[in-house]
Write a structure and sequence with these properties.
- This protein has 990 residues and is mainly beta.
- Among the domains are: 140 residues, no CATH class; 67 residues, no CATH class.
- Helix content is 8%, strand content 44%.
- The strands form eleven sheets. It has a 22-stranded antiparallel barrel.
- It is a multi-pass membrane protein.
- Keywords: Cell outer membrane, Membrane, Receptor, Signal, TonB box, Transmembrane, Transmembrane beta strand, Transport.
- InterPro entries: Beta-barrel_TonB, Beta-barrel_TonB_sf, Plug_dom, Plug_dom_sf, TonB-dep_rcpt-like.
């Protein structure tokens, strides 16, 4: 369903003929490769197909991605995959994002199935792209070649907010493009091209549902366009509504949503033993944490092993692995692994309650008014309004471990109180999943308001044709995040400490009582009173209100001022100014009461609350703001080297850009490359190398501290799991990341000896230095314990089991990334196969990642290669194959998606007990290190009901392939975790 092409045209007339040909063809699903091979100047330059018009129609503009040069006959050296309108339609997705991310070169993108485990990230349901596995922050996403305001303060855009029905094609530039487009284009560019001159009316109605009777979907789209004033005034608009109900959550234990049975609580267990000849890490299914249960468990001391059922009655907990509680103060279980037993009573496990796919609802409106004030010159204004709402449940329950409770607690059954007296103790350690409380829900609401005004066209200067493009963009994105049913930790800690006073059960602390404390019975699953529930999970929960603004002023020129021996010298130059600003405000219990006064009584002053914030179990958003501006100018040239029948045609392409960041000063980017159309029919060579940059974003520079709760963080000193708060803070001294991107390729495009065939092979190598990165929470603790970086010892405190335990994480220009690999793409179009009517098309795209090295830059560490790590997002091989047959009446398409077998991490040393070397941080030992790849088949088809109405269907994951086992859950970045999906709909166009 994807097309990829090369240009061999040398004149405007030739391209006009081809555009008229494409008007009558199905772009992409049948023969797009052959047509685009003749039409597109390179995979980086594509000609927009205008609406149906008389044969005398002319091409009004050339839409370019990956370069700023827009002159006739130009061939750019940067490879680009082109996804046409027909491919988008055939994929029948409720969000175009799901179609684009199937490209093999896209690895690590975020969408509605990622970030669903998160309470505090603020990126739930955010649809953004990642090229080459370099992350969403290193891929630049454009709309009609123009920047779009970020949907979060990382600067990444949300494609869900784009006007999707009017998109003609999507260009995916697989390579650095900073010299052409500026910061962030390290991995490449994804450019959405809309039909700015659409006339008529078209629409789409679609519905979908999974095999498991969930993830119900609906999509309604309508677009219209009309010309006035002798075809000089052009109005285009679209509206769309889409809703996906999502999947999940499941129940406690191992029960997923629907009738899915693939979850086995696979866990990577750290024995924390390095030199006994056995693996340090063990992969085990049916892992049972023994620090808590569904309704509560005494976890240490003489009463260890006493659990409570839903009614609050005690029983002897069934440990897996035939485990026997040690009944010591440390709380170990003899016969079990550290922190886990295998099998036994798994009913308290919480991971099955995670949302598999976030619910998402989109509302998008778009309009554009253009006026041709002169021939080939237009003034226009466009506006884009969008709203995306998502919701997810991060996990079941809110497990609290290491709680100290009193034997005198009046809610404690009498038999357990008597056992306390017999054992001579007055208190005990306790852990619970808190299944008696409602589960946490996270709701996001993103709203984008974007206006662009511009001028573009052509003019003559010294008898030469020039193009210009000037625009001003103002974008605002408002993000609201609200968390329901989350523990207010100080209140919970006081509510569970109950006593009897004057015949009534009350909170033990008199200060807490004076400030409204309501006692809570956590022994069992009896629903709490409304007053107790409001006290520990107040309705006024955590919230975040963020406002992002972006202003861009851009002016670009392109032309061919000089005729040389082999053709015209083409140039493009321009300048741009950009300003990015954000502000965020959060509730005072999370952000800190000192930062914001209690709001309208919803967050009353309370001496139990920390004035520094972090009072919630999770969702402790912070206040902050930041701003930076960018001034830049660029020059790009295309120099023809030779052009004759004996040696073919070659050109040299180069660009340079100077950029001044208000935060980090001036930096240069550049690129140099070229193409050679050999005298051999259809054979072309190309190559390019570039220096690209990514400037630190607002989040990295000025982040309000992002707080995440780590409910089972392992404390290696005390050999226990604790609840820890991770605080991520900004660093205004960061400098830009600097990348070197090199690509070399060969293309065979539509040779006369095999019409309709195209193929390409491109090798790439990327090195990124001064990568903005930070130590992970576990690294900070580990480097302190091992005395590798003693400075990290002051960044955390894990010695208070009742909290607050914290770990502070900050970004630095510490790391580097190095990756290499190659892309392969081929397609063949067979017209009237075996004498049958219609066309048959074969197409395949593949990416092989040879290596993907990440170097933390820290002492005592070595680079880690994550190529082939299927727990991440960079498998060794990833490919997409399509076979389609279509006639004037119907079409059938098969699609296969596959990625190769991999592992949990290349750093691990696999060994069996008794034969393991000493386990080290750089080479930890493990007993199993394999994650299988996956093969998914999709099938779809269309049928023309009438001349203007087409019905269609699509089945994704036809064989309902389950995801592979992964530590704790599954990896939605690679695997399909929803299962078989059915979709059907009707399109119309008048």
């Amino acid at each position: 369903m994807f097309s990829y092409g090369e240009d061999r045209s040398d004149s405007r007339a030739r391209r006009g003929d081809l555009v008229r040909q494409i008007k009558g063809e199905a772009l992409g699903s049948a023969g797009a490769a052959a047509l685009l091979a003749a039409m597109i100047a390179s995979p980086a330059l594509a000609q927009t197909a205008a609406p149906p018009a008389p044969e005398t129609a002319t091409v009004s503009e050339i839409v370019v991605t990956g370069t700023r040069i827009q002159t006739t006959g130009f061939t750019a050296p940067t490879p680009t995959s082109v996804i046409g309108e027909e491919q988008i339609q055939n994929n029948a997705q409720p969000n175009i994002f799901a179609t684009i991310v199937q490209l093999p070169s896209l690895q690590g993108s975020s969408g509605s199935a990622t970030n669903t485990f998160s309470t505090s990230s603020g990126q739930q349901g955010l649809s953004s792209f990642s090229l080459r596995g370099l992350g969403t922050i290193r891929t630049l996403t454009l709309l009609d070649g123009q920047r779009v305001v970020g949907a979060y303060y990382t600067g990444v855009t949300d494609v869900s907010l784009f006007p999707q029905l009017l998109i003609q094609r999507v260009d995916v530039v697989n390579g650095g493009a900073s010299a052409s487009y500026g910061s962030d284009a390290v991995g490449g560019v994804v450019n959405f091209i809309t039909d700015t001159r659409f006339t008529g009316l078209k629409g789409n109605v679609q519905a979908g549902i999974s095999k498991y009777d969930d993830n119900k979907q609906g999509l309604v789209q309508l677009a219209g366009g009309r010309s006035f004033a002798d075809d000089r005034l052009h109005l285009v608009g679209s509206v769309e509504w889409a809703k996906e109900n999502g999947v999940g959550p499941g129940d406690f234990g191992l029960d997923l949503a629907g009738d899915r049975h693939w979850f086995t609580q696979t866990t990577m267990i750290n024995r924390n033993v390095f030199n006994d000849g056995s693996p340090q890490y063990l992969m085990r299914d049916q892992a049972q944490p023994y620090a808590y249960t569904k309704y509560g468990l005494i976890t240490a001391g003489p009463l260890q092993g006493i659990a409570f059922d839903q009614s609050g009655q005690p029983f002897q907990f069934q440990y897996g692995s035939n485990g026997v509680p040690s009944k010591t103060a440390g709380g170990a279980v003899n016969g079990c692994l550290p922190g886990f037993c295998i099998g036994g009573d798994l009913s308290g496990n919480v991971d099955s309650g995670r949302t598999l796919q976030s619910a998402i609802q989109r509302k998008v409106g778009y309009g554009r008014i253009g006026y041709d004030f002169a021939e080939n010159n237009e003034a226009y204004v466009s506006f884009n309004l969008g709203q995306v709402k998502t919701s997810n449940q991060p996990v079941n329950g809110m497990n609290r471990t290491g709680l100290t409770l009193q034997c005198a607690n009046p809610y404690l059954p009498a038999s357990v109180q008597a056992a306390c007296a017999t054992a001579g103790i007055t208190q005990f350690q306790f852990g619970t999943s808190n299944a008696l409380l409602p589960n946490t829900k996270v709701h996001t609401d993103r709203r984008m308001y974007r206006v662009v005004g511009g001028l573009k066209g052509k003019f003559d200067l010294f008898s030469k044709n020039w193009s210009y493009d000037a625009y001003y963009e103002h974008g605002v994105n408002k993000t609201a995040i609200d968390v329901d049913h989350i523990l207010l930790t100080p209140h919970f800690n006081q509510a569970i400490q109950a006593i009897t006073l004057n015949g009534a059960i009350v909170c033990a602390d008199p200060v807490a009582r004076a400030n409204g404390c309501q006692p809570l019975n956590i022994f069992g699953g009896k629903p709490p009173s409304a007053a107790a529930l409001e006290y520990v999970q107040p309705a006024a929960g955590p919230f975040q209100r963020m406002r992002m603004t972006q202003d861009v002023a851009s002016l670009n020129f392109s032309g061919a001022p000089i005729d040389l021996w082999a053709g015209p010298l083409s140039v493009a130059f321009g300048a741009e100014y950009r300003r990015e600003f954000y502000t965020v405000r959060a509730d005072p219990y999370g952000a800190g009461i000192a930062d914001r006064s209690p709001n309208g009584g919803a967050y009353p002053a309370d001496p139990l609350m920390s004035t520094l914030g972090n009072n919630w179990h999770a969702g402790n958003y912070k206040n902050g703001d930041g701003v930076y501006n960018v001034k830049e100018a660029f020059l790009e040239i295309d120099l023809p080297l030779f052009n004759n029948d004996k040696v073919g045609r070659a050109n040299f392409n180069a660009a340079a850009r100077v950029t001044d960041y208000s935060t980090s000063g001036t930096i240069w980017t550049w690129k140099a490359g070229g193409t050679w159309d050999t005298p051999f029919d259809g054979l072309r060579f190309r190559g390019v190398t570039s220096r690209d940059v990514r400037a630190p974003n607002l989040s990295e520079l000025f982040a309000a501290p992002v707080t995440t709760t780590l409910p089972n963080f392992f404390d290696p000193v005390n050999n226990r799991n604790v609840v820890a708060i991770q605080n991520v803070v900004g660093n205004s001294k960061l400098t830009p990341e600097i990348a070197r991107n090199t690509q070399v390729g060969v293309v065979l495009a539509n040779p006369s000896w095999l019409p309709g065939f195209s193929a390409s092979f491109d090798y790439y190598k990327i090195k990124v230095d001064d990568v903005v990165s930070s130590l992970g929470a576990a690294q900070i603790v580990d480097y302190c314990v091992r005395n590798i970086i003693p400075e990290t010892c002051g960044s955390y405190n894990l010695n208070n089991p009742n909290g607050p335990n914290y770990i502070n994480v900050q970004s630095f220009n510490l790391a580097s990334i190095k990756t290499s690999g190659f892309d392969i793409e081929a397609s063949y179009r067979w017209q009237q196969p075996l004498g049958l009517p219609g066309n048959f098309t074969l197409r395949a795209l593949a990416t092989h990642i040879r290596d993907f090295w990440t170097d933390t830059g820290l002492p005592g560490t070595v680079p880690v290669d994550s190529a082939g790590v299927n727990q991440g997002n960079t498998p060794d091989w990833k490919w997409l194959a399509i076979q389609s047959y279509e006639t004037d009446r119907f079409s059938v398409t098969l699609q296969e998606r596959w990625f190769s077998d991999g592992n949990y991490g290349n750093q691990y040393v696999v060994c069996a007990p008794g034969s393991c070397p000493v386990s080290t941080p750089n080479a930890p030992t493990i007993d199993k290190n394999f994650m299988p790849g996956a093969f998914y088949m999709d099938v779809g088809g269309t049928y023309k009901i009438g001349e203007d109405v087409t019905a269609y269907f699509k089945v994704d994951n036809l064989f309902d392939r389950d995801p592979a086992k992964s530590p704790n859950y599954a990896n939605p970045a690679l695997y399909d975790i929803v299962g078989r999906m059915y979709r059907a709909g009707v399109r119309f166009s008048f």
